[in-house]
Each structure stands twice: as C-alpha cells, then as structure tokens.
Amino acid sequence: MKEAVRVRMKSRQTLAERTRSEEPIEVTVSGTCSEEKGDLVILFEEGSKEQGSDVSNRLVIGENSVEVHKTGQIRSHMRFEKGKSHPTDYITPFGVMRMAVKTEELLMRRWENRLILHIAYALYVEEEHAADCVMDIRIEDE
What is the mean pLDDT of residues 95-123? Predict the structure, then answer.
C-alpha cells in the first residue's frame, strides 16, 4: 500500500437489551500508512480542532489482531483478537468507563492497494454486557 490512504470506518451497535439497533456511524478520512515490525500502521484524525473534538487514531494491524489507539478528546486502546477479551479504559471529558471487548469474529482481506477488515465483538461496560458491535474498515490507496 502507498503512504497516503483513504480510511472508511463503519460501525453499528445492537444494544444488549435488544430493544433497538443504533444507526450506523460512518467516517471517511485521509490517513497515512507505514509498516512497523511487520505490522501495518494506519494514522488518521477524526473531527477537527476548530470543532473541539479532535481525536488521533492509530490502527495497528497484525497477522491475527487489530489494535485501535485513540488519543485526544477521547482516549482508549482496544485490542481485537478472535475468541479473546481485552479490557480497556475509555476516557472522555466526562469521565472514565471501564470497558472490555470480546472479539467474536475478525476477518482480514489484503490486496496490493486495499485492505478490508470486519470485526464483530461484544462490548462490556463496567463488567456488564452493553452491546453487540460490528466494525467494518476499508483502507485503500488515495
């Protein structure tokens, strides 16, 4: 993949009480791509400083795992590995939530100029099942 990439992230949640499904959230941004220690590293920004909601993202894509690091207004480090649960603190301007993600499905397809990720996971907040989530990420050369 080239250094300049386009990142499209689409996520949706079904709340644990199954009363409703949240509307999908979709973000498309420009970013950069590099390799570090055999992992693919994607950097991109969400929001803007003018809006007061800037968040820097770092995706680390390994052979069998994906890590999402967020810094800025929101800070977290989520790790996805099929069949495993990983705890994290989700830090916002309003407080800290103790969370965990349990990855049910992690699929990756990579071509020379494109990468597609599909992650299905259960989200736990303060040790309670809060939602079932799906995140689809498409990264391609700009």
Answer: 96
- Secondary-structure percent of the chain, ordered helix, strand, coil, rounded to 5: 0, 75, 25
3-state secondary structure of 33: strand
Whether residue 129 is predicted with pLDDT greater than 90 in this model: the reply is yes
How far is 125 from 62, CA to CA, in rounded Å?
A: 26
User: What is the model's pLDDT at position 16?
Assistant: 72
Handedness of CA 3, 60, 132, 124 (dihedral sign): negative
Measured from the Cβ of residue 91, the count of other Cβ atoms closer than 10 Å reads 15
For the segment 46-97, what is each residue's pLDDT rounded down to a tens digit? 875 555 568 999 999 999 999 999 999 899 999 999 999 999 999 999 999 9
- What burial letters (b/e) apply to 51-72, b meaning 16+ CB within 10 Å? eeeeebbebbbeeebbbbbbee
- Give the CA distances from residue 76 to residues 17, 19, 60, 98, in Å, rounded to whole numbers and listed in that order: 25, 27, 14, 10
Contact yes or no for 41/27 (Cβ under 8 A):
no
